[in-house]
Write a structure and sequence with these properties.
Layout: E1 5-7, E2 12-17, E3 20-29, E4 32-39, H1 49-63, E5 67-70, H2 73-81, H3 94-97
Parallel strand pairs: 4-5
Antiparallel strand pairs: 1-2, 2-3, 3-4
Length: about 100
């Protein structure tokens, strides 16, 4: 499995594994990215690629000093479970305000 990479031309983070590309779409506003939709192709679903994609995306964003708005439910669930990622939230009270 390769590292997560940013594909700014398509506004998405990508992870290549098993011959397919999983991705998270984003909308950028400066150094804040709204992660809007995650997609893992059906043929590799259930193999942990979605989790690896979110983890790698957040690590890449951290290394670049970016903040996240987790609109995608899968990203939000990951961040709720992994409290050590919540410092990346653009709004530290995001989960309080969105019923999580």
């Amino acid at each position: 499995m390769e590292a997560v990479r940013d594909n700014p031309a398509l506004s998405r983070f990508e992870l290549e594994a098993e011959g397919v590309t999983s991705f998270i779409d984003y909308v950028r506003e400066g150094a804040t990215l709204a992660l809007t939709h995650e997609r893992v192709p059906d043929e590799v679903s259930g193999r942990g690629l979605g989790t690896a994609l979110v983890k790698g995306t957040l690590e890449l964003m951290r290394s670049r000093g970016e903040k996240v708005v987790p609109i995608c439910p899968f990203v939000a669930a990951y961040m709720l479970k992994h409290k050590d990622t919540q410092d990346l939230l653009a709004d530290p009270h995001y989960f309080d305000r969105h019923g999580h």
